[in-house]
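Worked example

This section walks through a single chain of length 287. The input is the sequence exactly as stored; nothing has been trimmed or padded.
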Amino acid sequence: MNNKLRQLIDSIAQPDGVAASAASAHLDQLTKPPGSLGKLESVAIKLAGITGVDKPELDRKTVMVMAADHGVCEEGVSAFPAEVTQQMLYNMLSGGAAINVLARHAGADVKVVDVGVNADVAHANLVDRKVRMGTSNIAKGPAMLRTEAEQAVLAGAEAVAEAVKGGTRLFVTGELGVGNTTASAAVVCALTGLEPEVIVGRGTGVDMAGLTRKISVVCRALDVNQPDANDALDVLTKVGGLEIAALAGVILGAAAHHCPVVLDGFISGAAALAARALAPASAAYML
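Given that input, the structure is written out below as tokens.
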């Protein structure tokens, strides 16, 4: 394993139990029945443990959108051509996507990071961490090299480190890449042992015939590549995506800096499984 990645993983500590206990005690002193705020109380206690502060302030928030393309699109797994990734990327960079609207409503920044879009993209608001021009077709062979998977993970972690320097204390996962629900399904199947028929979904706008084709492609990807369930980097290398690996890096980076990271969506869930496999302690920082 890359030395920098090993150092990142080794730097992730367990949350602060003292701060969590202090937050719990404070909640119990408030004028309300104990536990009456339900999940809000458990989240508050968890945030205290993550940050090490019994009354944490998380005013600066950043949505980390990792963008990349997928060679598996040539198998017809998506209702949209791969070129849509680039079109959506520019819309997001100009502030016109749904995530931009939601982030503005929540008072959060949106940081878009190119780790593998299959085009030369130039924009003032884009963070360029491109590892390669998209992945190879996982139905025919590995998505990428192991060194490239490591580089993508580190790209996500480094983007987090830069945001922390700018004052961010809470992160949200985001992704962009036509075909990435197929790669994510393969990652989830590889790491959990569940069958593609259980995991594969329609993604964006795929009909029943497309779903059947998509399941078949994931089965082929797993059969051709034989990813090692006990080696998350091997799984990401063989059947993953550059943005999935980068999101795993976002999670690891957030945990290393004692910042909570909010997971949203299936792709982020696949990245979270990979992050937890790489560093079990990172799961305590996920919301």
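What to look for: Residues 61-285 form a domain with the Rossmann fold fold (CATH 3.40.50.10210).
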